[in-house]
Design a protein that fits this description.
- 27% of the residues lie in helices and 34% in strands.
- With 316 residues, the chain is of the alpha+beta class.
- Strands 1, 2, 3, 4, 5, 6, 7, 8, 9, 10, 11 and 12 form a twelve-stranded mixed beta sheet that branches.
- The chain starts with a helix and ends in a 16-residue tail after the last helix.
C-alpha cells in the first residue's frame, strides 16, 4: 500500500503480472521517481519487486515479463532504472536490453568488530582487533569547519530549510532525484521503519549538509545504514563533522558499523575513505534501460553526472 499506492504523484506506480491459466506466475513493478536529467524534469521508472514463480523456472517468464513491462513503460517514461545486487538476476535484465553504466559498491566504516568476529567464531580476538581499529579510525578522519552546527531529528519536517537545500543540491548536479518534502515524507514513511536525520547548518542557519540513516542488522552486525548523504558544493569541509556526529551517536547506541552505497566517484567526492570507510566486496549494479532515446547514453551512463544512494532505490 505504501510503496505502490501512495507515491506523491498523479501516477502512483505501474504494476504488471503474468498468468499461467489462473495461476499468477510473474510480477513486475515500477515507481515513477521524478528526476532532473540535464535541465529537464521527467518521471523515471524505478523498477523494483520483480518476481517469478519458483515452480515454473526455465519457461522464460522472467524474460517475457521484462520485455512486456518495459515495452509498456516506454509510453510512460523515457528510461528505467534498477539496483540489483544478486548476480543471478543480471543476465536476465541484460537479455532484454538493460545495460550497466557503473557499479555502486557498499562502503563500511567499522567501529567495533565484536559481532563480526563472533559470527566467524573468532570472538576471542575482538579486544585486540578493536584496539587496532580504534587507532586506524583515529588517523582516518578529516578536519572540519568548527563554525558549522549539527542537529539530529526523527521527523524530516523539523529540519527548517530542508526543501530549499534539497533543490539547491539537485540543481548542482546534472542528474538528480527530486527530493522535495512530498517525496521525503513519502520515502521516510516506509512501514516498520524508523529514520533519523542529521542536518548541518552554517552560521546563518542555512542547511548545507544532510544525512538520513536508520539502524539495521547486517550479517549479524548492528549498523547504521546511510540512506542519503548530500552536501552543497563549497562545503566539503563539513564531512569530518558529519562522520564525527555519526560515530558519536553510533557508540551510544551500540552500533558497530556504518555503511552506505554509492559510486566510486561519489565516495571520493564525499571523502569516505579519508574518514575510515573501506570498499567492501559487496557491489550493487546500476542498470538502465533507455526506452525512448530522449536522453542519450552520454547523459545517462556517465558516472560523473550522478550521486546515487539507497534513497534512489526502494531499499532500507
Amino acid at each position: 500500500m505504501w510503496k505502490f499506492h501512495s507515491f506523491p504523484h498523479a501516477i502512483k506506480s505501474w504494476e504488471y503480472s503474468s498468468y499461467l491459466d489462473s495461476e499468477m506466475v510473474g510480477y513486475y513493478a515500477a515507481i515513477p521517481y521524478i528526476y532532473k536529467i540535464g535541465g529537464k524534469i521527467t518521471p523515471v521508472g524505478m523498477v523494483c519487486d520483480v518476481m517469478t514463480s519458483s515452480k515454473h523456472q526455465g519457461k522464460g517468464i522472467f524474460t517475457q515479463m521484462g520485455k512486456f513491462s518495459t515495452k509498456e513503460l516506454s509510453s510512460e517514461v523515457p528510461f528505467t532504472m534498477g539496483y540489483p545486487i544478486r548476480k543471478e538476476v543480471i543476465p536476465g535484465h541484460l537479455k532484454v536490453g538493460w545495460k550497466i553504466p557503473f557499479t555502486l559498491p557498499l562502503y563500511i566504516k567499522f567501529l567495533r568488530l565484536n559481532s563480526l568476529l563472533a559470527s566467524k567464531k573468532l570472538g576471542f580476538t575482538a579486544p585486540a582487533a578493536n584496539i587496532f581499529l580504534s587507532v586506524y579510525n583515529f588517523f582516518r578522519q578529516t578536519k572540519y569547519n568548527k563554525c558549522y552546527n549539527s542537529s539530529i531529528s526523527t521527523n524530516i519536517n523539523d529540519i527548517i530549510g530542508y526543501e530549499p537545500f534539497a533543490k539547491e543540491w539537485a540543481d548542482s548536479l546534472p542528474n538528480s532525484l527530486i527530493k522535495d518534502l512530498p517525496f521525503a515524507n513519502w520515502r521516510y514513511a516506509a512501514p516498520e521503519r524508523k529514520y533519523k536525520f542529521l542536518s548541518i547548518t552554517d552560521k546563518s542557519g542555512k542547511v548545507i549538509g544532510f544525512v538520513s540513516f536508520r539502524n539495521i542488522l547486517k550479517e549479524g552486525v548492528p549498523s547504521y545504514g546511510l540512506i542519503d548523504y548530500m552536501v552543497l558544493p563549497g562545503h566539503e569541509d563539513c564531512h569530518g563533522l558529519i562522520n564525527k556526529i555519526l560515530v558519536q551517536n553510533a557508540k551510544t547506541e551500540g552500533i558497530e558499523a556504518i555503511m552506505t552505497m554509492m559510486s566510486k566517484k561519489s565516495a571520493a567526492d564525499y571523502l569516505l575513505c579519508k574518514n575510515g570507510f573501506i570498499k567492501s566486496p559487496f557491489v550493487f549494479s546500476l542498470i538502465i534501460k533507455n526506452l525512448t532515446n530522449e536522453f542519450g547514453e552520454e547523459e545517462l551512463f556517465d558516472e560523473n553526472k550522478w550521486h546515487l544512494m539507497w534513497v534512489d532505490s526502494d531499499d532500507l
